[in-house]
Amino acid sequence: MTKARRRLWITAAAGAVLILAATLAFTAMRDAMVFFYSPTMVAENPPEPGQRVRVGGLVVTGSVERPSSGGANFTVTDGNAEIRILFAGALPDLFREGQGIVAEGVFGDDARFTAANVLAKHDESYMPPEVARALRDSGYWQDENAPASSYGDSVQETGR
User: Fold this and answer.
1) What are phi and psi for residue 156, nearest 5 degrees?
2) How many CB atoms sit inside 10 A of residue 62's CB?
3) What's the pTM value of the predicted model, to 2 decimals?
4) Tens-digit pLDDT string for the chain (160 aa)
5) How far apart are CA 14 and CA 76, in angstroms?
6) Which of 22, 127, 128, 143 is the least crowded, having the fewest Cβ atoms under 10 Å away?
7) How many Cβ atoms are within 10 Å of 110's Cβ, its own excluded?
């Protein structure tokens, strides 16, 4: 085997190892990424069933039901569309109707969203930035003086 041929084999083997490592890294990162969807985005282009996503909006007044089995079922809206959320865990103490929340979970084959975590605001001025942006984009946001970047300093999270 000539020196040039040996160098070619080493370069090809190193390239194959590099491609394998990159494939493994991208596969691991894909499972860790969670995208945010507003109710309008879900209505226009729903995520794949089983894909882990975050949805957010304002909790619709009068939509919270507390089944006897525990947890809560409620609806969130961005003013244009609504999503019904099923949550089996304990809601944050600050969870209330009419306030912004973000829920993380999956859509089932029947298009129902089952949340594993619910994030609620801490104080009167907090609004999750993704929710504020979605509400502002839909024209539902009322506070024109507060930029979305001023929100989101503290989040209370619960889950199973």
Assistant:
1) -95, 130
2) 10
3) 0.63
4) 788 999 999 999 999 999 999 999 988 887 778 889 989 999 999 999 998 999 988 899 999 999 888 889 999 998 889 999 999 988 888 888 888 899 999 999 888 899 999 988 665 566 667 777 877 887 776 665 554 444 433 344 444 4
5) 51
6) 22
7) 6
